[in-house]
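hey
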C-alpha cells in the first residue's frame, strides 16, 4: 500500500472507523483530510469502545503517525479534550501532527451554525439541514472567504488576536442585527484559544511534507474519509442538505496535498442497508416497524450527536454513483450481521421516474423529487454471521447477495463487517 483511501459511500456512519482501524495494521501513517468533529468514528477493541471525532483512528496504533490535514476543521478545545481522554486511556498520542493550515472552528462558528438553523426553521421547517451544530458550514465558509483563523495562527498571539477581532466585527454585526442575539467577545475567545493553543503547540507541524516525504521513503499512508459521498458539497444528494467539505476520494488529495497518481486502492465503505442523520432526500427510507427493528439492532444513533438515524434499504443506484465518483477499487460491506434475522432483504436496483425505469442517478436535482425505488428481493440467510472467520464459511444466500451487489456496481467486495469488534471482519478473495 503506498497510499490507500477509505471513503464513505452513503450518508456517513457506514463503519469507516472500524475499517480504518483494521486497514491501519498495514499502514505507517493515517491521515484525516476533510470534515471536522461533525464526524464520529467508532472503534471497538475487546470490550473497550473508542469514539473519535477529530483524530484519525490510526491514533489507536500508537507507533503509527497520525495526521490532521490542512483540509480539516478543528475545534482546539474539543480536540485537546479528545487527546487528553486517549492519554488517560493509555494512548500517548505522541506521533500526532496537526497541519498549520487546518481551519479553526471558533465559538462564533458554532453559534452561527445554530442561529442559522433556527432562522431556517422559522422561515420553513423543511429548510432545516439538521447539521451537527459543530460550526462546520460557517468555518469552511470563512476559509473560502479567507477570513477564518488557522491552527498555525495559535503560535502567533498578536496575529491571532487581530484576526479574531477583525472576524468578530463581521460576526457580531450578523449575530446582533440578523439573529438578534448577544454579541461575542473577541478578546475572551482569544484568551481561551491561545491557552489551549499552547498545549497543542507540540503537535502543530508540516503535515503535507510528512505525507509527501513519507511516501517518498516508502511509508504506507492510509487516508480516513469522514462523512460520506452523498453528503459531498458538490456531489452529494442533494443541495443544501449536505456537509461543507469533500468526503469523496478526491478530498484526500485536496485536504493533504496528496498527488492523485499516488493513490493505489480506494475502499468504499458500504453499510448493508443505509442510514441518514439530518434532513434531505432518502429514496429507500423505511418508516414502519422494520425501520425501528433495524435501527435498534444496528444501534443507529448518532456517534457525534446521539440523534436517531433514519434507516432504509441498500440503494444500488446510489452505490453505483458513489463507485463512479470515487473510483472505488474495493467495497467493504459492513453491518451484514444486522440483517441476519430478516427473512427477506430488499435492495433498490432502479428508480421509477414519470412511469419510466432509470438505472443511473439523474444529475438534475429537480428530477429526484418524484422518484420511486424499484426493489429486488433476496431471501435472508437467517444465520448468525458474527462468528464467521473466513470467506469459505459464508451462507449461500449471503454469497448470492454479495455477488449481486458486486456485479451491479462492478467492484469486488473484499472485506465484510460482521460485528463491532476488530476481529469481526472477514477477508474475501
Ligand atoms: P463511521 O462514522 O463510518 O466511522 O461509523 P460510526 O462509528 O458512526 O457508526 C458505525 C457503528 O456501527 C458503530 O457503532 C460501529 O461500532 C458499528 N459497526 C461498524 N461495523 C460494524 C459491523 O460490521 N457490524 C456491527 N454490528 N456493527 C458495526
Ligand atoms: P461520519 O464521519 C453522518 C450530516 C449531518 C447533517 C449534514 C450537515 O461519522 O460518517 P454538518 O454539521 O456537517 O454541517 O451537517 O451532514 N453529517 C453526518 N452524518 N455521519 C457523519 O460523519 C456526518 N457529518 C455530518 O447530520 O445532515
Ligand atoms: Mg459516524
Amino acid at each position: 500500500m503506498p497510499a490507500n483511501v477509505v471513503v464513505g459511500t452513503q450518508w456517513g456512519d457506514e463503519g469507516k472507523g472500524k475499517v480504518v482501524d483494521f486497514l491501519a495494521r498495514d499502514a505507517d501513517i493515517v491521515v484525516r483530510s476533510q470534515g471536522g468533529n461533525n464526524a464520529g468514528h467508532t472503534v471497538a477493541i475487546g470490550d473497550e469502545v473508542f469514539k473519535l471525532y477529530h483524530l484519525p483512528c490510526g491514533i489507536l496504533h500508537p507507533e503509527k503517525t497520525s495526521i490532521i490535514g490542512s483540509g480539516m476543521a478543528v475545534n482546539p478545545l474539543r480536540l485537546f479534550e479528545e487527546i487528553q481522554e486517549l492519554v488517560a486511556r493509555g494512548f500517548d498520542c505522541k506521533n500526532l501532527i496537526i497541519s498549520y493550515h487546518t481551519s479553526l472552528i471558533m465559538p462564533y462558528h458554532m453559534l452561527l451554525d445554530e442561529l442559522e438553523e433556527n432562522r431556517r426553521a422559522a422561515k420553513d421547517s423543511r429548510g432545516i439541514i439538521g447539521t451537527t451544530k459543530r460550526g462546520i458550514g460557517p468555518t469552511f465558509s470563512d476559509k473560502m472567504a479567507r477570513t477564518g483563523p488557522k491552527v498555525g495562527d495559535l503560535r502567533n498571539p498578536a496575529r491571532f488576536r487581530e484576526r479574531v477581532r477583525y472576524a468578530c466585527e463581521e460576526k457580531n454585526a450578523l449575530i446582533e442585527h440578523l439573529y438578534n442575539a448577544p454579541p461575542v467577545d473577541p478578546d475572551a475567545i482569544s484568551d481561551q484559544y491561545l491557552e489551549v493553543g499552547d498545549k497543542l503547540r507540540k503537535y502543530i507541524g508540516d503535515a503535507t511534507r510528512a505525507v509527501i516525504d513519507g511516501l517518498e521513503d516508502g511509508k504506507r499512508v492510509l487516508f480516513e474519509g469522514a462523512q460520506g459521498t452523498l453528503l459531498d458539497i458538490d456531489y452529494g444528494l442533494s443541495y443544501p442538505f449536505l456537509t461543507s467539505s469533500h468526503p469523496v476520494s478526491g478530498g484526500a488529495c485536496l485536504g493533504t496535498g496528496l498527488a492523485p497518481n499516488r493513490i493505489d486502492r480506494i475502499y468504499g465503505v458500504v453499510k448493508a442497508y443505509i442510514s441518514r442523520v439530518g434532513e434531505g432526500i432518502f429514496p429507500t427510507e423505511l418508516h414502519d416497524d422494520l425501520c425501528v427493528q433495524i435501527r435498534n439492532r444496528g444501534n443507529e444513533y448518532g456517534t457525534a450527536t446521539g440523534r436517531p438515524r433514519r434507516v432504509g434499504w441498500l440503494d444500488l443506484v446510489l452505490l453505483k454513483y458513489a463507485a463512479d465518483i470515487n473510483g472505488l477499487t474495493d467495497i467493504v460491506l459492513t453491518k451484514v450481521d444486522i440483517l441476519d434475522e430478516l427473512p427477506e432483504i430488499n435492495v433498490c436496483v432502479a428508480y421509477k421516474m414519470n412511469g419510466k425505469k432509470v438505472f443511473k442517478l439523474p444529475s438534475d436535482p429537480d428530477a429526484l423529487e418524484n422518484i420511486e425505488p424499484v426493489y429486488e428481493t433476496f431471501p435472508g440467510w437467517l444465520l448468525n454471521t458474527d462468528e464467521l472467520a473466513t470467506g469459505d464459511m459464508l451462507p449461500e444466500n449471503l454469497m448470492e447477495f454479495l455477488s449481486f451487489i458486486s456485479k451491479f456496481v462492478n467492484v469486488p467486495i473484499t472485506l465484510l463487517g460482521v460485528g463491532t469488534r476488530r476481529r469481526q471482519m472477514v477477508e474475501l478473495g
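The chain has a mean pLDDT of 96. The CA atoms of residues 297 and 338 lie 6 Å apart.
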